[in-house]
Amino acid sequence: MTKNKSFLSPIVIIGMLFFIFGFITWLNGTLIPFLKIACELEYAEALLVTFAFYIAYVFLAIPSSFILTKVGFKNGMALGLVIMAIGAVVFVPAAQSRSFALFLTGLFIQGAGISLLQTASNPYISILGPIESAAQRISIMGVCNKIAGALSPLILGAIILDGASDIENQLKTSLASEKEILLNELAGRVIVPYIVMAIALLLLAFMIYKSSLPEIDTSKDESEAVQDASGKSIFQHVNLVLGILAIFCCVGVEVIAGDTIGQYGSSLGISLDVSKNFTSLTLVAMLVGYFVGIVAIPKYIPQNKALMYCGIIGVLFTIGIIFTAGFTSVAFVALLGLANSLMWPAIFPLAIKGLGKKTEFGSALLIMGIGGGAILPFFYGKIAESVGVQQAYLILIPCYLYILYFATIGHKKQTW
């Protein structure tokens, strides 16, 4: 795997998986307004969509690292895809009963499957070549991820939110019996897409199982992963611990930008038929950032400098959201995608640098940081209900400032 010709097959396979991550992950931005209407939810309740999906990473990341040591890299990936397919199937009874709890269960199961895939794929692509250019390789994976992320809200939104504004108006004037029929019809729109998704995931799982993807060494046991022969705990690697919090902030701000922009547009009086596509704008902005990363890192700019610029841009664009109005303010939310684009690709390699044999377990801990995508958007929703959806974006500023700290000082720290 040290020769260029051996890179192509693994990169193509991991790229396919990152496409799947992106497609399923960024469906949440469409599911939030959809379930808010179909299950008659308050705004913060609707953001439990992201909570259920991302909290799975917190519970499953470390078990995922141990699953990979038992079944191997390739089989673990296939298993993750099967788990995601099960989560998609759960959407069928959830839609039939219009049960928000079942929808959340399906999302948690999908998050669990992606957690297994992420735990394997991120360290794999990081160590596929020199650590100094890891952000470049992860940026290539990010392009696959965000192309899928830009497409998924457009595709699912066209199916399940078609005529959503008209449905909202009808619900306001309908009798109880008519309202029930409308809501059941709306909820049923997700059944066919998620059945198709489940079949596609199972087919891809079979393809991965039969593929030529090379295995990686996952033979370390838990005690060796947590503590090396000299007795040094993994938590004494300061860059890793600070990196976990950086990932927490990174994913939190990324999810807030991508998954709240549609509802934010609606709150400003923009039709849901238009605002349902706003998540794709955020993903397009991220794509631009990823292409910059592919070209510039590490030839023109080191990955820590790229992360520093992302933190600064994030603060400036957040200020833009607060102090502008209408489509301009929405545009600043979308442009946060540019600030968010190179954060994950830069944080991950900076955080695992120097871990040696602990890299796999350290990567699992970093994957747990994805829980920021569960917790920070939920807090945003609660704040939004109190002070307004626009002012609630102020929660982003301390997150970006911490990422700026990690980029400039935190990743260099060797001791507490």
From TrEMBL:
How does the record classify its membrane topology? Multi-pass membrane protein
Could you list the residue ranges that cross the membrane?
A: 7-27, 47-69, 76-94, 138-161, 191-209, 240-258, 278-297, 306-325, 331-352, 364-380, 392-410
Keyword vocabulary terms for this entry? Cell membrane, Membrane, Transmembrane, Transmembrane helix
* CDD domains reported for this sequence: MFS_FucP_like
The name this protein carries in UniProt is: Sugar MFS transporter
In the record, the note on similarity to other proteins reads: Belongs to the major facilitator superfamily. FHS transporter (TC 2.A.1.7) family.
Start and end of every Major facilitator superfamily (MFS) profile domain? 1-212
Q: What does this protein do?
A: Intake of glucose and galactose.
Q: Where in the cell is it found?
A: Cell inner membrane
Q: What organism does the UniProt record list as the source?
A: Arcicella aquatica
